[in-house]
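G., the chain you wanted modeled:
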Amino acid sequence: MEKRAGRDVTGISGRTVFGIFMFGVLLSTALSFAGYGILQRVSGLHKANYLQRDATFELLTSIQRTGSLQSPARRIAVSGRLRALQKSAAWCRASNSRMERRAVRLIVGTSLFDLCERNESLLREAGRYLVLAGDPSAPTGFAFAAIANRLILSSETADRIFPVLDRLESVEGRAVRIATMGIAMLLLACGAVGLQMRRRTMEILRGTEAERLRDQTRFRRAIRDAREGLGVLDISGRIEEWNPSFAAAFGVENLEGRFIDEILRIAVSSGRIVEIRAEDVTLTTGQLAARIMEGTKADIRFDDGRFVRLSAARVDSGDGVVIVTADQTEIHRQKEELHTLTERLSAAQKEANHQALNDPLTGLPNRRAFDLALAAANDGPCTLLRIDLDHFKYVNDTFGHDAGDEVLKHVAKILKETKLDQRLAARIGGDEFVVMAPKEANLAHAETLATKIAAQIRKPFHYNGRLCHYGASFGSASNLDISDDLSPRGVLAAADVALYRAKAAGRDNSALYTPALHQEIVAQRRLADALLRGLENDIFVPYYQPQVDAVTGRLVGLEVLARWPRRDGTILAPGAFLPLAEQMKKVSEIDRCIFHHVRKDMERWAGMGVTIPKIAFNASSDRLRDSGIRIEVDDFGSGHASVMALYRVRPDCLKIDRRIVAPAADRRADSGAQAVLKAVVEIGKALETEVLAEGVESAEIARNLTALGVDTLQGYHFSRPLPFDQITEWMAVRGRRIA
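Predicted structure as tokens:
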């Protein structure tokens, strides 16, 4: 049969065949022993039955030969013998199991146990006979003859069994021989199996040893060829295996039989090892040796500048340690470079942060740093002092920007050196500074700060031997002195308002954002909100004031004046909201709103057949002239309405301000006032420009102005400013001529 890899092609192995054979041997041996036991049992039963039959027959023969059992002693002796035989017959019947009875019937062909039962029955009848034998009137002869006949029949049956028993004895001998042979074969098989197992075990052991030797060879070759240093220690720290790199790392050529702590001590004492560190802790050689046996990592610095990483790990079996040494010199160099680069980057980052949060000229925190500090206040107590330099532009224009820079540095030095109880002093603009006072500070504290700083700023400051004149204005605000909750941003806005008030008061001054000023600002803010809503709802309306010819008294035009109707029924004149509108840069929008209403009113007048000679409207000259509208210079003699402006604008009418008209129109006024008024009239005549005087409050003033040569008059003497309906009624009632 062809085999492949130690197995039959049928797929049944030798082990399987051997197992089947051993199973058959064991089964046959077990059956032989079982048959032998049954045969022995049958033989014993037969012998017991035969002995009982002979004893019973002998007893009955003895009774028949004696012929009488009248003697009590004789009956007692015979009765005892019968009871013994009955017990033996009962044991023969009851001491065998059902399986043994079936086996005996199968082998013998008849039942030995039936003979046992018959013997037991004969013995019981013999017992009754003994009882009758004691009675002279009993038929003893008949009873004995019946028992004798039955005993003979039993003897004949027993005689037929003897040949079967002889055959059983021969079978029993063969069974014993078969069992003996099975045992011998079993012993031989066990011996063969043991021999095979021993041979296989020896083969496995020899293969394992060869494999171990090969593994050991490969392990040593791997250690020898490894780039890193490799060493193997036993449990006591003795070096068992190593490669050249491991020996070279410590500068010791012969490592055989040496301990790791000894190698470390030699390397340290020779100066080869400079430092041993593990987890940022410097170790001694003894500490490192102890850690190696437990498994650790350490960095070793050598005198030639090399860095070696030593890594130790216990083997799984726990009976040794493996050490790996790897050159980390390049890695350490890169780490040092990285550390140096990180330090440079950190320094550059700090410098960048410093520059981002500090003014490069003065070194003070800048606007961004101040905003961060303001945000950090987190709606808590906040007191601020705003500082704005006065005449700083004069210093730049006169002495140059270098001088201006020196002034800024000087002010920064004052803020740094003055013993101020402050949280922060910053430069937030060109010539603007701010000081943040402590949390518990209030307006009084801020005012004290302003006084100290102002005293230092007023001291003479020289630049290149020349005295620089400049000053400072201060505005202070604190949310500790205001009933309404002000955020830090709100406090900054309040300090700006106070600074604006200080500059408006004449510069080189200080102002506080008091509760009264706060209420004023709140009212102004509400007015500003209302102004915006008014523009959205188009509620600004024109009022008209008549302008009359000074000589004829006829209506020559209407001046348009803006009015703001409020919800409470009051009408606000321009003086109440125009300054705020100028700050909000909403004057042009108010102009457009008024102009829109005037156009509608003119269309209505045209529909009514009313002709208006001219409409005087306050607006910018370019926009009006481009629209084909006549231009009048309002409030001439005050503000920006100068003589030079006349040449630039070339107006159609020159309107004299009421503050000039009132004193000059009175004949009792000094000649200087009248001279000024006459000069203005002459300028208008020289420019061939119409001259109009406003503020005419009486007929006398009107006559005086007419005498001085004024062309047109306007004032309460003729009419107050009126809305469309009322001015239309006024024109209808008064007519086109005013007396």
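Residues 1-11, 138-144 have pLDDT under 50 and may be disordered.

Shout if anything looks off.
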